[in-house]
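User: Can you model how zinc ion sits in this protein?
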Amino acid sequence: MVAARLHALHTPMTLDTIPVPKPRPNDVLVNVKACGIVPNMGNVINNWMTWFPHQPLPKFPAIFGLDPAGVVEEVGEAVINVKPGDRVYVSPLRSCGSCQACRSGHRSLCRYYTLNGYFSTSRDGQRIFDLHPYGGFSEYMTAPEYALVNIPDNLSFEQAGRFGYLGTSYGALKNAGAGPGQVGLIDGITGTLGVASTVLGLAMGLSRILGTGRDENLLKRVKALAPDRIEVMKLDDGSTGDWAKSLTGGEGVDFVISALGAKAPAATMQDSMKGVRRGGKVVVVGGVAEDLPVDVKWLMDEQVQLIGSNWFTAAQGQEMAEMVRTGTIDLSYLEHRRFPLAQVNEAISGLKDRDGGFSNYVVIP
Ligand SMILES: [Zn+2]
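Assistant: Here's the modeled complex, given as structure tokens:
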């Protein structure tokens, strides 16, 4: 099979011919049809060692590729619930499987938590990379059966390649307790996680979604997804927290999803947080450029919860797949930019993108 492999940092990936792996007893072999990427992935990989010297990367030569989708080709001898021919999304979340967190279904809380084909934020992640050396930039990959999400026929492999970002947004909405009748504020609504949170939030029954962003054209495109349920505001046009309160009769929103980019000032998030109602939740899936100064007395008085949210469970992935199957969520907003495996370096080199969260970069092995 052909796989794109990185042999050293700051060098391009090369297309190498290597043997098709044999699945272990609890693994399956997947014929990869599409693998989603975040533009700028190359930057993340190349700078990882500098930013986070104690957090591991796969050993070189490494096969990256975070969000693969494809068809099961073969199953290990102990796999009884998956069969060849199944269309699947492979969640890259890997964990030990037997600690207290894993056994209670919270695999992202495992000390071995690792995003296969990308990076690990866990010191112990190297063990996982060594056990799971195949990412999605390859014609075939092995994956543990626990990581599979069965996808319906009306979900294309390209759309499934976006499930990582959709799922991260879904996990955040679940952590926010989002549901019918609520109002949510999405900070950074025009980005990948922002648009995904909007589409999912509408499907989950939110009455209204308020969103902030910098690009006026993208803000208009987001509002056009549901003009009577979405309100948008350009950042720097005043206080976002005051705006959120003014649109909710002074009460505040039920929750804030903070999906800002890594370069955003902390003051932006601090402002939006103050738009939450008493007992509301602030869920972080993005990041800001600096430490966030939090008024903990306000947090206590208003009984506000500040929650970090990271990835999602395969079961939540299955819920999203079911929402696609039934037409509850519509992923037609995604505009695919397809790259053959031979152009993987171009695809991950950080192309400038004016379409924010509407564009979907996929590598087609
Ligand atoms: Zn574990």
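A couple of observations from the model: The chain is about 25% helix and 25% strand. The CA atoms of residues 166 and 196 lie 5 Å apart.
User: Helpful, thanks.
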